[in-house]
Write a structure and sequence with these properties.
alpha/beta, Aldehyde Dehydrogenase, Chain A, domain 2, 2 domains, 5-stranded parallel sheet, 14 helices, 21 strands, binds nicotinamide-adenine-dinucleotide
């Protein structure tokens, strides 16, 4: 039976889906979950109007008072962690511990941003003139349009909305149409914490209709988007005519460099986790392994063996390590790339097909897949697959490893596994990525540090930490001249 488990929130009123709602289903079983509103441009317009109307009151609320509500929301997220985590698995399939981790990211972000309510630091600095004070204030940007993907269905809406809110902005969230229940349950925590009507609005629907309207809306001052490069490009173009501040977090082709001196057991564990966690559906998934010649063959063998032994199944079942892909189209995309890899001459050493286990037949599963003999120019070494596929590339030394690592259009995260400090530091400085992991895989972001990438992954902004605050505030410089005289900067020296 389908229920209205996902609802819009506009001006403080919850609204269920109409007859044309968007159905969702459990990717592990194919069972129907519910129906979400298929919002029209007019619904987005109402949500933006509500956010605009609520803006003056919220912006004028002292930041520590805004933060009180975020503290309360953090407590509610903690209380509802299990419920939210279950919903994450149900809607997009990730395994239990990762689903709970998704919610934990939101909890951590809520506490971090609540703490920011008593900081939101600016700068005070001497003036070049006597009896004059110079300082900076952070002002809210205005109504923020937040467009989010399905792979972190609680964490990413929180990463965007919580910094926006503590800074005094009002928001309209357009979550992924694949995970509307998670976004609804997250926003319920904000509402139940006491966030006033109109400050947070939630509008479900397709990207083409609801998303496109939101990012082009003339009353939206800033857009924060996470998703694919293709969509990010459209968002940037749509936001440009009204000069919106636009933050884009997009795809990745993350690589783990493994040098000859690495601890092989550790490298295998770190890569399996980075490549096949969330079934490879992470922007930071390790879809490339760049192995030095002396360790390469042993690493390929061990990775293939490890991949074959990962347990597939429903994410909430005990012992399961790899869940399904989000939808049938995701499996089809992975299949297409496996064929591309084979056609390009890469060697398939594990996986490469849908599992034969009849118990998994109704879900969107794909076996963890490892390719060896991959050349850096191959499409499987260049393009984001967003599934459980990793490509191993052989290199002779660190310099070649760095060149290969940097030889893609993306620049999100990179990792190096070696016992040598100098090699680690050289890699950390040379990787063309926003994030570097030393002696680990490519995943494991913490909320108080900037998150994001360069090149085709991002457009120069960062999420999380103080960097998140920077995106959601405008600097205002205030000069207070208490000399009583006309003092002219640069002239009266
Ligand atoms: P997607 O680009 O298909 O969709 C993302 C969001 O954009 C959805 O809410 C969608 O409805 C909306 N959208 C689609 N078309 C739109 C349009 N024309 N205008 C406005 N909004 C529109 O991405 P996805 O499949 O949901 O997520 C997977 C992608 O997200 C991968 O490429 C992954 O690497 C990326 N991702 C990046 C990060 C990061 O921080 N760099 C984090 C997670 C996911």
């Amino acid at each position: 039976m389908t229920t209205a488990y996902a609802r819009n929130l506009i001006a403080g009123t919850w609204e269920g889906p109409g007859a044309d709602g968007i159905p969702t289903s459990d990717p592990a079983t194919g069972e129907a979950i519910g129906v979400a509103p298929r919002s029209k441009a007019a619904d987005v317009d109402r949500a933006v109007r509500a956010a605009k109307a609520a803006l003056p009151g919220w912006a004028a609320t002292p930041a520590p008072r805004r933060a009180d509500l975020l503290f309360r929301a953090a407590g509610l997220l903690e209380q509802r962690k299990d419920h939210l985590g279950h919903l994450v698995t149900r809607e997009m399939g990730k395994v239990k511990e990762e689903a709970l981790g998704d919610v934990q990211e939101a909890i951590d972000m809520a506490y971090l941003m609540a703490g920011e309510g008593r900081r939101l630091y600016g700068v005070t600095t001497p003036s070049e003139l006597p009896n004059k004070l110079c300082m900076t204030l952070r002002e809210p940007v205005g109504v923020c349009g937040l467009v989010t993907p399905w792979n972190f269905p609680v964490a990413i809406p929180s990463w965007k909305s919580l910094p926006a809110l503590v800074c005094g902005n009002t928001v309209v969230i357009k979550p992924s149409e694949e995970t509307p229940g998670c976004a609804t349950a997250y926003v319920e925590c904000l509402v139940d914490a006491g966030v006033p009507a109109g400050v947070v609005n939630l509008v479900h629907g397709t990207g083409e209709e609801a998303g496109a309207r939101l990012v082009a809306h003339e009353d939206v001052a800033a857009v924060s988007f996470t998703g694919s490069v293709e969509t990010g490009r459209k968002v940037q173009v749509a936001a440009a005519p009204s000069f919106k501040r636009t933050h884009l977090e997009m795809g990745g082709k993350n690589g783990v460099v493994v040098l000859d001196d690495a601890d092989l057991d550790f490298a295998v564990r770190a890569i399996l986790w980075s490549a096949f966690g969330t079934s490879g559906q992470r922007c930071t998934a390790a879809s490339r392994v760049i192995a030095q010649a002396g360790i390469h063959d042993r690493l390929v063998e061990r990775l293939a063996e490890g991949a074959r032994h990962l347990k597939l199944g429903h994410g909430w079942s005990p012992g399961v390590q790899v869940g399904p892909l989000v939808r049938p189209w995701a499996v089809e995309k992975v299949e297409k790339y496996v064929q591309i890899g084979l056609d390009e001459g890469a060697r398939l050493v594990a996986g490469g097909r849908r599992p034969k286990d009849p118990a998994l037949a109704r879900g969107h599963f794909f076996e963890p897949t490892v390719f060896a003999g991959v050349d850096p120019s191959m499409r499987i070494a260049q393009e984001e697959i967003f599934g459980p596929v990793t490509a191993v590339l052989r290199v002779q030394d660190l310099d070649e490893a760095i060149r290969v690592h940097n030889g893609t259009a993306y620049g999100l995260s990179g990792a190096i596994i070696t016992r040598d400090l100098a090699s680690s530091m050289k890699a950390a400085r040379s990787f063309q990525t926003g994030i570097v992991y030393v002696h680990n895989g490519t995943i494991g972001a913490e909320v108080h540090l900037p998150f994001g990438g360069i090149k085709h992954t991002g457009n120069g902004h960062r999420e999380a930490g103080i960097a998140g605050i920077d995106f959601f505030t405008d600097w205002k410089t205030v000069y207070v001249d208490y000399s009583g005289a006309l003092q002219r900067a640069q002239i009266d020296r």
